[in-house]
Amino acid sequence: MVTAFDIAMMQERTEQDGSVPVVAVENLRKTFGTLKVLDGINLSVNRGETLAVLGRSGTGKSVLLRLIIGIETPDSGSICIHGHNIAGLAIDQMGTIRKKIGFLFQHAALYDSLTVAENVAFPLDHHRRDMSRSERGDRVKQLLAEVGMEGDFRKLPSDISGGMQKRVGLARALALEPEILLLDEPTAGLDPISSGEIDELILKLQRERQMASIVVTHDLHSARTIADRLALLDQGNVVIEGKFEDLQQSNIGFVAEFLKQS
Amino acid sequence: MSLAADFFEWFGNLGIFSWNVLKAAVTPPYEWRELIRQLDEVGSKSLPLVAMAGAAIGVIISLEARYSLSRFGAKSMFPATLVYSVIQIMGPIITGLVVCGRVGAGIGAELASMKVTEQIDAIEACAINPYRLLAATRILACILMLPLLTLGTDACALMTGWFAQTLVEPLSFHQFIQDGFKGSTFNAFLPQTFKTAAYGLIIGLIACFQGMRTRGGAEGVGRAATNSVVLGSLFLILADVVLVKFILVVFD
Q: Which of A91, A109, A172 sits opposite B118 (nearest CB)?
């Protein structure tokens, strides 16, 4: 069983030894039926760094995030958080790990019977009972103010736009002060102005909080704006990984085609 | 062959689901607030419906029993016939089926909708066990509320049954109750009422299982709601066959 003490020890080790990434995925494989989605992925992210994972639709980008958070189980390979392999841990064992990870789903996945404020308060109500009700309320207001949603406490998710839902989803993902942030298509379905606002918000939060972030996106412009490194997936493998300039200078046909079409 | 494999796979998955729910239910932290909310949802909000169903079957049994007993010259047996029919047979099964329709469909649809919109995944991503928060609370609420709802059904059925009889042949309620329960013991009625806790387990378990494994968008949600009611009702009736025999062997 992974305990909070284990996580603290791993975290200390990561901070002391800068060579140990916060998130490291090694030789990860996942198949659904006969469809091989991930075929030996190797990626790592350090503290304060943002990695954008790009690729065509259906190449397993979202599956990668779901494997890291533990919603899916890999067929083989390792997923290391602060050097500790979490692949295949049981649901209660994953609890301690998940408190350190914030996850923004592609469609925000807000609880539709709860208000905006109740959605953001949800993880606090379950995991921060040491805080008083008013302290939790203040924390919710602070989080919503950070994402620009301070005026919409009592609204239901059905009463707000897609972009606003993403902001609320982001506030909820940040509620437990995560060290790792996973973002699944944060700008999908948004107009260019709203996409830009979400990108700026992610950049601002990353500057302030110095999380290890993995952003899955097919939006190359967004990836260039927010990411320190980019990784391009194709047919279950990482075709290239590096800065945007590395992708531009690549001789690989798929990379050139992807950049051209984006 | 594929049908047989699907059949056993379904039961296998149900077994795994049940084990996960049981493990989650007996380990802290407990979801007391959600449990109380579900007790209200399953219990208080089902009461008007089961009361109406009880009232209806009371009148039906009263009319049929009076007619049948008159043919055999046994009208004096009417109070006992009504009491035993309602409390031992009709009250529990009618309550179970009505609650299966209302609560089973509601839970199945709610959880299915949450599944297809990734809300259950979001709960898990927030380091909260969805088996504990969603399934265990609902199943426990069904187990606790079914016996109480059955008492409500029985009470309404006896009252309307007596009232329907009184309109034809005046009989005081006090006399009706005295005649109806004459010579009986708690063993005659309590097991039949508390067996509905097993109905609650079936209704809650099937509905949560169907809801939390849904795929396929709106069609999947509809299918989950329908299957929750159909399978819940079927298993409920089959369980009644076993439970009736068990009660007769153990308590009689």
A: A109
Cis-peptide into B29, omega within 30 deg: yes
Q: What is the mean pLDDT of residues A1-5?
A: 58
- The amino acid present at B62, given as its one-letter code, is S
Give the contacts of A85 (CB within 8 A, at least 6 positions apart).
A78, A79
Nearest partner of B97 among B243, B237, B244, B239, judged by Cα: B237
Region of A103 on the Ramachandran plot (φ > 0 left; ψ -120 to 50 alpha; else beta): beta
Q: For testing the chain B interface, which of A92, A94, A107, A127 should be mutated: the one with the most B CBs within 10 Å?
A: A92
Beta bridge partner(s), residue B219: none
Residue in the block written with tokens 């279950």: A236
Percent of the residues in chain A that have a pLDDT greater than 90, as a whole number: 63
Within 13 Å of residue B42, how many CA atoms lie on the same side as its CB? 32
pLDDT over threshold 70, residue A9: no
E strands, chain A, are 23-32, 35-45, 50-55, 76-81, 84-85, 101-104, 180-184, 212-216, 229-234, 237-242
Instruction: Give chain B's length.
Output: 252
CB A99 within 8 A of CB A2: no
ipTM (interface pTM):
0.89
Give, in order, the Cα–Cα distances in Å from B191 to each of B84, B94, B151: 13, 16, 12
In this complex, do A107 and B125 lie within 8 Å of one another by their Cβ atoms? no
3-class DSSP state of B3: helix
Interface contact A166, partner B, CB < 8 A: no
Predicted confidence band at A17 (pLDDT cuts at 50, 70, 90)? low
